[in-house]
Amino acid sequence: MYSVTSLMDQEEFRGAVLNQPKDQVCKLDDPPISPANYQHYCKRLGYNLSALLDQRFKFLQDHIETGNTVLEVGAGQGVTKTFLPGINLIQTDVHAAPWLDATTSAEALPFGDAVFDAVICIAALHHMNFPLRAIAELARVTRKGGKVLVLEPHNSWLLRQLLMLSGYEYVDEGVDPFGAEPCLRSEDNWDGNNAIGDLLFGDQKRLRESLPDLEIIHHEYSECLMFMNSGGVNHRTPYIPLPRMILNLILKIDKLLCRSAPNIFALVQEVVLQKT
To answer: Tens digits of per-residue pLDDT, 64-109?
Structure first.
């Protein structure tokens, strides 16, 4: 299996990744993501949020091997490094931040073909105007036999109610992610159409026709009560701190709810696409 450690050390690899034209990838000097917010985010990992992320990253750990060379697009707060040790991780986002390796769009990646063993995209596709183009790019930079790991909102009844109450993001099923028109209502990178995941991965026939070198090998639904009492992943929300024993019980209840009635309760979908 391809591993950067067999060719060059991690710092040299990062240097090679960042040694690209500035109009494609730029080093990060003036981060618009607040360091204070990042520190607050890290502190919250000791509470409810850590229980949620432990479960979320367990899914990723099941499909990534130690020593793998992995790209993360839409890395945001960069917390993946905490939960996936032992891999060669390159983190990118459209927003600059000092803990990221590069600033670049997932819809036009500057990396070569078949560079990574796996690519991670966590809750980012629904912020993109052309998510199919992004998936094609993720597949291009993934080696044959490698995996594209995606977590996206699931357009369940509960998700719709939460979005309606919060006024944050929206669900627009009238767009076509397989078409030529943008999927978002604005050019703002924080705009989010929570229907994208279901529209893309719910139509496996069109997905296969559009991306014949990708095969869905895992598609499950998760996260309900634990997400609502996590304190928020990217945005702070009210929550009640609970002991680990109670959090573990909530996670078990979530699993039961999401398996028995995903279209009512599940807030997230886990998708693994393997490059053939």
So the answer is: 999 999 999 999 888 888 888 899 999 999 988 888 898 999 999 9
Average pLDDT over residues 127-134: 95
Q: What is the pLDDT of residues 245-265, one digit of tens each?
A: 999 999 999 999 999 999 999
The domain made up of 4-275 is a member of CATH 3.40.50.10490: no
Question: Quick one: three-class SS letters along the chain?
Answer: CCCHHHCCCHHHHHHHHHCCCCCCCECCCCCCCCHHHHHHHHHHHHCHHHHHHHHHHHHHHCCCCCCCEEEEECCCCCCHHHHCCCCEEEEEECCCCCCCCEECCCCCCCCCCCCEEEEEEECCHHHCCCHHHHHHHHHHCEEEEEEEEEEEECCCHHHHHHHHHHCCCECCCCCCCCCCCCCCCCCCCCCCECCHHHHHHCCHHHHHHHCCCEEEEEEEEECCHHHHCCCCCCCCCCCCCCCHHHHHHHHHHHHHHHHHCHHHHCCEEEEEEEEC
Domain residue ranges of the chain, discontinuous segments joined by +:
4-275
The whole model's pTM is what?
0.83
* The predicted structure's pLDDT at residue 40: 54
